[in-house]
Amino acid sequence: MAPTIAHGAESAYDYVIVGGGTAGCVLAARLSEDPDCRVCVVEGGPSDIGDERILRLRNWINLLGSEFDYGYTTVEQPRGNSHILHSRARVLGGCSSHNTLISFLPLPQDLDDWVSRGCSGWDPATILPYRDRLLTQIVPVAEADRNPIAQDFVTAASRALGVPVVDDFNAEPFADGTGFFSLAYQPEGNLRSSASVAYLHPVLDRPNLTLLLETWAHRLLPDESGRLTRVAVRGADGEPAAVRAERELLLCAGAIDTPRLLLLSGLGPADDLRALGIGVRADLPGVGENLLDHPESVIVWETAGPLPPNSAMDSDAGLFLRRDKGQPRPDLMFHFYQVPFTVNTERLGYPVPAYGVCMTPNVPRARSTGRMWLRSNNPAEHPALDFRYFTDAEGHDERTIVDGLKVAREVAATDPLRDWLVREVAPGPDVVSDADLSEYGRRVAHTVYHPAGTCRMGAPDDPMAVCDPELRLLGVEGVRIVDASVFPTMPTINPMVTVLLAAERAADLILDRPGPAEQEARQ
């Protein structure tokens, strides 16, 4: 049972971590390694311990829209899909307790992009060695979980496109390729190796670690000196209380709820805050801006009958492609689903096959960026999210989806995958022009649940930076941000491991200790 705090009470710790998600679990474990350091985690959701719905990876799809989902929506998307449910996890472990746990190290060029944006100390030589500290078990999909149709997809993709079959995408940086993903899971039992499972479960008996579950943080408060050291929360009993950090507040609530918390606390674009009747504590125009995502579309095929039942999480294999061979990173990605993902095609009137598969062409580094903002000063009201999908002036994102639908058809027409497929259900073989493929591809587009960038870190001369390269919130003292909201640009591939690496890095920054690369250099 998680501790509770009494109505109106204020409890004090050395560090208060707001958000027990992917990054928050790492920080809680690392900071509480010192038995004299008191650490508190404020998490709005329940525990994942012993809950098979959470712990079994293949059940991820049933968590979407469930009691474990905050269920954010978007404003109208004139060039995209306005009906996307942006699932954000409401459970210990955050999205690592909720997602498919596809695990990729960031490509070196992704981190180079950050350095070019003024984020010194985030270069590949500094960050990538943290992989050896990760406690999550990251392994390629086990042989027993490799469904025959997914294997045939990999073979067909390699044959059709001339890309290599990759055994382990984390073995070395790659330019393109197809293969089974690496997952943070334990194949025996299909159990998650989430941030919660790997970092927190083994240390929950530490007397200096406190978890406040079902406890929602909604405002940062100053102490007598004006320093932001306190968090106003509402406990599981609905009663208000406060938690105080004597060293630092660490915001790990994610790319939607971290900026939301800052805005509610008077930290953000001054004019917007005043218009809502929120007192301005620091004018930070970048809070809520630079909203990033990995948009993807879908193309669906019917199969002749049910597929073999084995799988890790029903999207175990994928494809990475460079349309521009002069570049070192993929600019088109696919997930291959062993189930027909029809939530968006069905809404447009397409049939739902009894048995089927789909490919989801994905934009790795989308050039369309959005923003989020508060609708009111009521903490309970969901913020407005405008991802501005497919609005980049060059049409890069739209072109990527059109090319992706065409490439998917090439793969589907190639043996041995071709022999599994009966017909293309959506959009159907009659949809062939670029204009029609674009219209379809954008209207059925979805998210891979990777919002990022809304509190981006940057150089001192970056007017839209929200935190510095040591993750310290600008304009105030004693607050750091550690989650995907600090990303200045989106990593090419699934970003969960990048969040884990950032949290491990943050622990060293907070404690002012050398990272693994610096330690090795001293030896």
From TrEMBL:
Cofactor: FAD
E.C. designation(s): 1.1.3.17
Any one Pfam family match given in the protein's UniProt record, by short name: GMC_oxred_N
Gene: codA_1
Listed Gene3D superfamilies: 3.30.410.40, FAD/NAD(P)-binding domain
Protein family: Belongs to the GMC oxidoreductase family.
Stated name of the protein: Choline oxidase
Keyword Oxidoreductase: yes
Record GO terms (molecular function): choline:oxygen 1-oxidoreductase activity; flavin adenine dinucleotide binding
Positions annotated to bind FAD: V91
InterPro entries registered for this protein in UniProt: FAD/NAD-bd_sf (IPR036188), GMC_OxRdtase (IPR012132), GMC_OxRdtase_N (IPR000172), GMC_OxRtase_C (IPR007867)
Start and end residues of each Glucose-methanol-choline oxidoreductase N-terminal domain: 254-268
PANTHER family membership: GLUCOSE-METHANOL-CHOLINE GMC OXIDOREDUCTASE, OXIDASE (CODA), PUTATIVE (AFU_ORTHOLOGUE AFUA_8G04090)-RELATED
Keywords: FAD, Flavoprotein, Oxidoreductase
Top enzyme category: oxidoreductase
